[in-house]
Specification:
The protein is of the alpha+beta class. The chain contains four helices and eight strands, in the order E-E-H-H-H-E-E-H-E-E-E-E. It has one domain: Nuclear Transport Factor 2, Chain: A (Roll), CATH 3.10.450.50. The chain is 23% helix and 43% strand.
């Protein structure tokens, strides 16, 4: 990759030679040219922790007074409670794949707070029983604490949770 005279990135050294190629931009854009999105980084850390069942990494995405609202009057608050609840919940599954399809966020850096919404799909493979898929979104509140953006509150709204191929119409 080279910089042109007007400081634009030249992709002429890549094999596809297409400056719009998403794969080339994602794979070969150095950090100094990559837009920083701390909330996407936070979401990716969270997702990675779920997929690897890493309770320490998952817990570190939350502020000390974090609140996780899973709906159905199931609200967990405080980092220690969040971690123990998450460990016992994850113990039911052989594998969980947690992915984000898109997100939006607004941050107020002066106040160290923000809000956002992230759409998720989870594939859950329990130790016993049939696989489950979850489609929904989180309404999030963020806080800047200990030099990081963290979850202050996550509220889950489920569009669908059940068999992966149910043929049921999904409501939005």
């Amino acid at each position: 990759m080279n910089l042109t005279k007007d400081n634009k990135v030249s992709f002429s050294s890549f094999s596809c030679n297409n400056p719009r190629c998403v794969n080339c931009i994602a794979l070969y854009t150095p950090p100094e040219f990559t837009p920083v999105d701390p909330i996407k980084d936070l979401l990716h850390l969270y997702s990675d922790a779920v997929c690897r069942q890493d309770s320490d990494q998952w817990t570190e995405t939350w502020c000390d007074s974090g609140i996780w609202d899973l709906g159905h009057d199931e609200i967990i608050s405080g980092k220690d409670s969040l971690k123990s609840f998450w460990i016992s919940s994850m113990a039911r599954f052989k594998k969980v794949i947690h992915t984000y399809t898109n997100n939006t966020s607004t941050l107020n850096e002066n106040l160290g707070t923000g809000t956002g919404r992230s759409y998720i799909t989870e594939w859950l493979i329990p130790h016993e029983g049939e696989p489950i898929v979850l489609h929904g979104f989180y309404d999030d509140e963020y806080v800047f604490e200990n030099n990081n953006w963290l979850f202050n509150k996550r509220t889950l709204s489920r569009h669908y949770m059940g068999k992966p191929d149910s043929g049921v119409e999904i409501s939005c």
